[in-house]
Design brief:
The chain is built from 3 helices and 4 strands. Helices cover about 35% and strands about 30% of the residues. The chain has one domain: Alpha-Beta Plaits. By secondary structure, it is α+β, with helices and mostly antiparallel strands. About 15% of the residues are buried. The protein has a 4-stranded antiparallel beta sheet with strand order 2-3-1-4, with helices on one face. It starts with a strand and ends with a helix.
C-alpha cells in the first residue's frame, strides 16, 4: 500500500485557498480514493503508483481549469513493500 502526502496550491490567486482545496477533495472523492485532509496537506492511500499519479494529475488539472495560471504541486510518497500499511499505521505504532 502507498501512503502519500499531497499539497496543490495555486500561485497569485490570493490568500484563501479553500475553493481550490475543495476541488482537490472532490477529485479524490470522485476516484474513490481514501484520504485524510489536515491543515497543511492531504494524506492519500492508494494500492499503486499508477492510481496515485492518475488522480493527482486530475486534481492538479482541476485547479488549473478553475482559473489558476500557476500551480505548485508537492507530493511525498511512502511506498513500503515489507508490510501492509494504511493511513493511521504510523500513528498507531507510537502507542
Amino acid at each position: 500500500m502507498i501512503i502519500s502526502q499531497l499539497s496543490i496550491a495555486p500561485v497569485g490567486i490570493g490568500t484563501s485557498l479553500s475553493k481550490y482545496v475543495n476541488l482537490v477533495i472532490n477529485c479524490l472523492k470522485t476516484h474513490n480514493i481514501k484520504f485524510v485532509t489536515n491543515d497543511m496537506a492531504t494524506v492519500i492511500e492508494t494500492s499503486d503508483l499508477e492510481t496515485l499519479f492518475n488522480v493527482i494529475s486530475k486534481a492538479h488539472q482541476a485547479v488549473i481549469d478553475a482559473g489558476a495560471k500557476r500551480v505548485i504541486t508537492e507530493l511525498k510518497i511512502d511506498d513500503r513493500r515489507d508490510k501492509n500499511v494504511i493511513i493511521g499505521s504510523k500513528i498507531n505504532s507510537l502507542n
